[in-house]
């Protein structure tokens, strides 16, 4: 490996010299990774992320409940019920915009604790008169057995049952207290076909990324290798020659000097596009991200603090900002894409201010009022989550198609129905 270049710009590497983890014997995940690297050579950042997060035995997501105050991060649904409620309104708005189909499948990718799905289903219950006779079901794509148990407890109480065989597409099923069926899957492909609204909140940022560096000889891939001076530590290196990924994933007109590409995210977007095109529906993606402008965003969180991405692998959450320009490019021209817009813009367009006022008006407890105002500030403040999170949607092409005008003479004037505006990306008007 001596022919490889050392990679690690000081402004982006995160020091963790005080972390007690570094003084412990090598973690089982570290042993697994070093053994792998010794056998086959340096691994891509994508392979590193995949192993650290989703390895079936020692993966971070497989072993841990990392959400909430005692975990490594808190998500918006844990901060305020209003967040999920407004997403529930968005889903019903898109269902109406599609002509109120007889079926509505809510599909959530990476559903966390189930808080978001729970808040959305509460809105469905409150707007049952709008949904009418539509058949509603919940489908959760979750790789973590630990989290699926937590989701089942929150959504179905003690009524869910695990499948007899690991080979079954639905590995857990149950019903909510309102009687709505809930199914769990390991893969998106296993979710049944039909009109579906897909929700991915803080899902794409955890998918594996490839990292590429521009050099005098062209684009080279950044890999993870063993530090020769410290055999129980890992380091970044740059390959001396092109890899298949560096030759195929970097755009010819790319102007940045450092690029992160989430090929797996591109594949999932294409799966969503195919399903929306064939069966109708929509997808709403909310995540840390940018529109093709950022460079090095790969980072780790442990106990709500930034952590060295290569230290004590398997003990911290790994994440990278979502490149929405890449997702839009992968979606292609067969669907309509909207956004990204900031979380502040999306929630304000959805009427978060009105909803907050209603809750405050009906609340007399000072502590609860304080909590409502504080959580609203966390979600919308530009300096907090308001501009760090972006919303992006994929819609069926017909959703934004202008109604065709009738040709020829007509004795009877027919009113052409106006298309519903796409909530969140345009301002909702309340009547």
TrEMBL record:
It catalyses: L-arginyl-[protein] + 2 S-adenosyl-L-methionine = N(omega),N(omega)'-dimethyl-L-arginyl-[protein] + 2 S-adenosyl-L-homocysteine + 2 H(+). GO terms for cellular component: mitochondrion. Residues 1-27 are annotated as: Disordered. It is found in: Mitochondrion. It is an enzyme of class 2 (transferase). It holds the Pfam family Methyltransf_28. It comes from the Eukaryota. Arginine methyltransferase involved in the assembly or stability of mitochondrial NADH:ubiquinone oxidoreductase complex (complex I). Acts by mediating symmetric dimethylation of 'Arg-118' of NDUFS2 after it assembles into the complex I, stabilizing the early intermediate complex. This is Protein arginine methyltransferase NDUFAF7. It comes from Anabas testudineus. The gene is NDUFAF7.
